[in-house]
Specification:
Layout lengths: L1 E7 L2 E5 L10 E3 L2 H4 L9 H5 L1 E3 L8 E2 L11 H12 L9 H14 L5 E6 L1 H13 L11 E6 L3 H9 L3 E6 L8 H11 L3 E5 L11 H13 L3 E5 L20 E6 L1 H5 L5 E6 H7 L10 H12 L1 H22 L6 E2 L6 E5 L3 H10 L2 E2 L1 E2 L10 E5 L3 H14 L1
Parallel strand pairs: 1-8, 5-15, 7-8, 7-9, 9-10, 10-11
Antiparallel strand pairs: 1-2, 3-4, 6-12, 11-12, 13-14, 14-17, 16-17
Helix pairs in contact: 4-11, 5-6, 7-8, 13-14
Length: about 400
């Protein structure tokens, strides 16, 4: 069951009417398929849910998925290819996985007494967290909740549903800040096992205020819950929660190499107190990170200055796009701490279709949540891609 916290006459309550809008990136199965006797052993809720859809970007300027637009130089491509060619593909991942864990610990400046676990992208880690916190019916304990602000990353709700947890989404304020009274009320009512705080948030691209963050973290801890700070977009943000991680023993930090510049290798990592990571790691499938992914990640960390330069370029391009958007009277652009910008236009579908017709693919998020009405999400690309995107946007308004 998925619940969405709403404000009604100043008093929050739970309902489910907004849930489907949080899954606008997915497509529903036909009723006939749900009734197909060949699928009768598939869980009814799985048959009724949606499958994630990736937009077809063939021949398009692809600015819909928050990917790093920069590729490796020919020299680094050749060096990586030679290195991957020497990997023992006939062996299961072994010691090199621990080498990667140590390299990531050094890269992040992991505090003493803390550890990390690896996932096949942060999506897998989100699923594993739900799995670790799901209470079986035989335990006699109430069903656990996952709580997160909405609009937000769809996988928080989806992983909760798949693992048998309830989800409660708490709407942001009109200016996309945490609604602290509503968050605290939802935590007190549902005592969530996991509270997610994306920092920056997707798709709104903003950082939450420190006071609200700390209030939510303390409240979640007081009811015995975990808090996961999702820093997927950390390379582009002005702040990180890492330097505050040791303040609260129930806080975990989730990161990914996707926005670092390696979306294709699918590697995420979860940071937290050693004792807590050790428990969550018990539900991780063995060999969940391939030898190729591992070696590519190690190679990238050895050349992190290259990726840091790419992040600086993306941040500079983001500033240029934002400034250009302010010159368009029909567009309202929101400040960003990520590699994307959220914009509100008079007609999101018309503008999206017009940009697609001009060869530029962005993301129409206007149906994800009522707060995102008439909004598009624009990924920051190269200077050339951004010019094409801005030209297409202006022409499509």
């Amino acid at each position: 069951m998925v619940k969405v916290y709403k404000r009604m006459r100043g008093r929050p309550r739970c309902g489910s009417s907004e849930f489907s809008e949080n899954f606008s990136e997915m497509t529903s199965l036909p009723t006939a398929q749900i009734q197909n006797p060949l699928t009768q052993r598939i869980r009814p809720d799985v048959q009724a849910m949606h499958a994630y859809v990736v937009q077809d970007s063939t021949g398009m300027v692809k600015l819909d998925a928050m990917e790093n637009p920069h590729r490796l130089s020919p020299d680094l491509q050749a060096a990586l290819g030679q290195r991957l060619g020497a990997v023992a593909l006939n062996r299961y991942p072994a010691g090199r996985i621990n080498d990667l864990r140590r390299a990531l610990a050094d890269h992040t400046g992991l505090p003493a007494g803390y550890d990390l676990m690896l996932g096949n992208g942060s999506d897998e880690l989100i699923s594993l967290l739900a799995l670790a916190c799901a209470m079986p019916a035989a335990s006699g304990l109430p069903k656990a909740y996952v709580l997160a602000p909405v609009p937000g990353f769809v996988m928080y709700a989806m992983s909760a549903q798949l693992q048998g947890l309830d989800f409660c989404g708490v709407p942001l304020t009109a200016d996309f800040e945490l609604d602290m009274p509503a968050m605290l009320a939802a935590i007190a009512q549902h005592q969530p096992a996991i509270t997610y705080l994306a920092y920056p948030n997707n798709p709104t691209a903003n950082l939450w205020g420190d006071e609200a963050m700390e209030a939510v973290i303390r409240a979640a801890g007081e009811v015995g819950g975990l808090v996961v700070i999702d820093e997927a977009y950390q390379p582009f943000a002005a702040k990180s929660y890492l330097d505050r991680l040791t303040r609260h023993p129930h806080v975990l930090l989730l990161r990914t190499l996707s926005k670092f510049g390696l979306a294709g290798i699918r590697l995420g990592y979860l940071l937290g107190p050693q004792a807590l990571i050790a428990q969550i790691d018990k539900v991780r499938p063995p060999y969940n990170v391939s030898v190729l992914n591992c070696e590519a990640a190690l190679f990238a960390l050895e050349h992190q200055k290259v990726f840091e330069a790419q992040a600086l370029d993306i941040r500079a391009q983001r500033a240029h796009i934002f400034e250009s958007l302010t010159q368009l009277p029909q567009v309202h652009a929101y400040p960003s701490e990520a590699n994307m910008l959220l914009v509100r236009v008079p007609d999101a579908q018309k503008t999206f279709d017009g940009m697609a017709a001009r060869g530029v693919l962005v993301k129409n998020v206007s149906k994800m949540h009522p707060l995102l009405t008439q909004c598009l999400r624009l990924t920051v690309g190269t200077a050339e891609e951004n010019h094409l995107m801005l030209t297409a946007l202006e022409a499509s308004l």
